[in-house]
Design brief:
The complex is a heterodimer of chains A (259) and B (262). Chain A is mainly alpha-helical and 259 residues long. Chain A has 10 helices and no strands. Chain A has helices at 2-6, 9-32, 38-48, 53-77, 84-122, 125-131, 136-174, 179-189, 192-218, 225-256. Chain A is elongated. Chain B has 262 residues and is an alpha/beta fold. Chain B has helices at 2-18, 60-67, 90-99, 115-125, 132-145, 161-173, 191-208, 219-225, 243-247, 252-255, and strands at 20-31, 34-45, 49-54, 75-80, 83-84, 100-103, 179-183, 211-215, 228-233, 236-241. In chain B, strands 6-7-8-3-9-10 form a 6-stranded mixed sheet, with helices on both faces. Chain B has a 4-stranded antiparallel sheet with strand order 2-1-4-5, with helices on one face. The termini of chain B are far apart. The chains are: A mainly alpha (259), B alpha/beta (262). The interface between A and B is medium-sized, with 18 and 26 residues. The complex binds adenosine-5'-triphosphate and magnesium ion.
Chain lengths: 259, 262
């Protein structure tokens, strides 16, 4: 510990990476060994998924409206007002929906997982689980990471739908377009190369949110202030990961589909 | 023939009685530049209750955390049931922990679970008991022993500090461990409950032949529950003996613990 203080920054950073890789393998091993904690998993899906619906819904709804209002003048200037539904649906489904929703989830879910596990660490609950011979990784980490990996994509699909509906309402402020026509235009302009890469991306977003939250909470220090630090750095790190994953995903999808 | 067999059994029994379950030799542990444990040596026999006294921050909790492998010692040897803890793999450590009960100083109840679920947790996850009737029976017995039966469906956040402590104790004893490590089992309890808990510790020892290390500041608890008392100071044990022996000690550092007791 004495040497730790004089460790140069990059060395500490590398150590942190090493820790995370170790934590990843610990998670992975525990997914396949021992029993799966179904009831805790379902509880986490409820906490993580169901309890975020409102937030994700409102955000996506507003984003849909705002995007239409912002896009409209430009497209009208080019005489392309009829392109509005297509522009919205492609940009929302491919990029804006998944990323905005993932960032919202990072703020809500990664921080709450970080704080929850961090406070369990501080109050010795993680140690207690460990010394009882139970496996805290299996019970707490595996369930949470899998729950976020499943729920964030679902939230994201829901958010897409609500966002596009918001777009429809916004469109009808100035122009009038029947819901049927709008719906046909939106669906017609999307194909699986829009939808599938976005869905795969959100799976990774979900994993990153759960993983970072668990890692930060599990490895927090033992003072009360470290609960706040764990929650905070979970949000920051998870958000960063989301953008990194997004950047990689866009490279891969454009190589595969868009050239 | 029968005579021989009987002799042998008796011998086995007495051997079992003298069996040393925890053996600590020259244990050292530092945090950074701070040497917390300097030279800890202790043998715990089967069926024996050892009380550790010592001032706050001398490393009593650190000692028992080393025993269950939560902390890694820096030197010396520490064996439980004859096996070196530091050399245990994940699987051996798990097996060890199934036999050792650990009461945390803070109680360490799982916040998100009710008292009942807290007690069920080690039964279903560790002992893998599936029979719900048996689980219910053991949970209720455990809670009854600490007088918390009416709080069975409450969440830890709805309990008082003392109740939380007792629930933690119930969770520790519900798996019937062979060794129990109590970290301040009576701290924060009223004198009457404290005495009940001390008597419970004694009763568990007699009933199940458990061996225990009890860390406490409560001299009443030490008097009731101990077979042997150790006094710890500055990372070492400075005195050892039965409660009565130490009580009569002329050594100033030892006598200081007994000033309130007449
Ligand atoms: N995980 C840890 N990291 C760093 N230092 C620690 C850690 N655990 C304990 N210490 C230090 O070791 C010393 C002994 O702590 P310990 O908890 O064993 O005291 P204690 O004898 O149980 O005291 P009390 O009677 O107050 O519970 C303290 O100075 C503490 O700061
Ligand atoms: Mg202590």
């Amino acid at each position: 510990m004495a040497e730790e203080i004089v460790l140069p920054g990059w060395k500490k950073w590398l150590e942190g990476i090493g820790d995370q890789v170790g934590f990843f393998f610990r998670f992975f091993r525990n997914v396949f060994t021992g029993g799966f904690e179904w009831s805790e998993f379902v509880r986490q899906c409820y906490e993580i998924g169901y309890r975020s619906i409102m937030l994700v819904g409102i955000t996506s709804f507003i984003m849909g409206i705002v995007l239409i209002l912002q896009l409209r003048p430009t497209l009208v200037a080019f005489g392309a007002a009829s392109m509005l539904p297509k522009t919205l649906s492609v940009s929302f489904v491919r990029e804006i929906g998944p990323v905005i929703i993932a960032i919202i989830c990072a703020g809500k879910i990664a921080s709450s997982i970080g704080a929850e596990l961090g406070s369990m660490k501080v109050t010795e609950q993680l140690d207690a689980m460990e010394v009882s011979g139970a496996n805290p990784v299996q019970y707490l980490v595996v369930t949470r990471i899998i729950a976020t990996t499943v729920m964030v994509p679902l939230l994201s699909v829901l958010g897409d739908a609500i966002g596009l509906f918001g777009g429809f309402l916004a469109l009808n402020i100035r122009d009038s377009m029947s819901f049927n026509l709008y719906f046909t235009k939106v669906i017609g302009s999307l194909d699986f190369t829009d939808f599938l890469p976005a869905l795969v991306k959100t799976i990774f977003f979900g994993f990153a949110i759960g993983f970072v939250g668990c890692y930060k909470g599990f490895n927090s220090n033992k003072g009360t202030e470290s609960v706040g630090i764990a929650a905070n750095s979970a949000v920051v790190t998870a958000s960063l990961w989301i953008f990194v994953i997004d950047a990689i995903a866009v490279q891969i999808t454009s190589l595969l589909f868009y050239n | 023939m029968d005579q021989v067999k009987e002799d042998k059994e008796q011998k086995n029994a007495s051997k079992k009685k003298d069996e040393i379950v925890i053996s600590i030799n020259g244990l050292k542990k530092s945090f950074g530049t701070k040497d917390v444990l300097k030279d800890i040596t202790l043998d715990l026999k089967r069926g024996e209750n050892v009380v550790i006294l010592g001032r706050s921050g001398t490393g009593k909790s650190v000692t028992i955390q080393c025993i269950v492998g939560l902390l890694k010692p820096d030197g010396g040897s520490l064996t439980v049931f004859g096996e070196e803890v530091a050399e245990m793999g994940e699987k051996e450590l798990k097996e060890l922990r199934m036999k050792v009960g650990f009461l945390f100083q803070s109680g360490a109840l799982y916040d998100s679970m009710t008292v009942r679920e807290n007690l069920e947790f080690p039964l279903t996850r560790v002992l893998k008991i599936t029979d719900q009737a048996e689980i219910d029976k053991r949970v209720e017995e455990g809670l009854d022993a600490v007088g918390l039966l009416d709080a069975i469906d409450k969440l830890p956040s709805d309990l008082s500090g003392g109740m939380r402590k007792r629930a933690g104790l119930a969770r520790t004893i519900v798996i019937n461990p062979e060794i129990i490590l109590y970290d301040e089992p009576t701290t924060g309890l009223d004198p009457i409950t404290s005495r009940e808990i001390s008597e419970l510790i004694l009763k568990i020892q007699k009933q199940n032949q458990t061996s225990s290390i009890i860390i406490t500041h409560d001299m009443e608890c030490a008097r009731i529950a101990s077979d042997r008392v150790l006094i710890m100071d500055d990372g070492k044990y400075i005195a050892e003996g039965s409660f009565e022996e130490l009580h009569k000690s002329k050594n100033k550092a030892v006598a200081a613990y007994f000033t309130d007791i007449l």
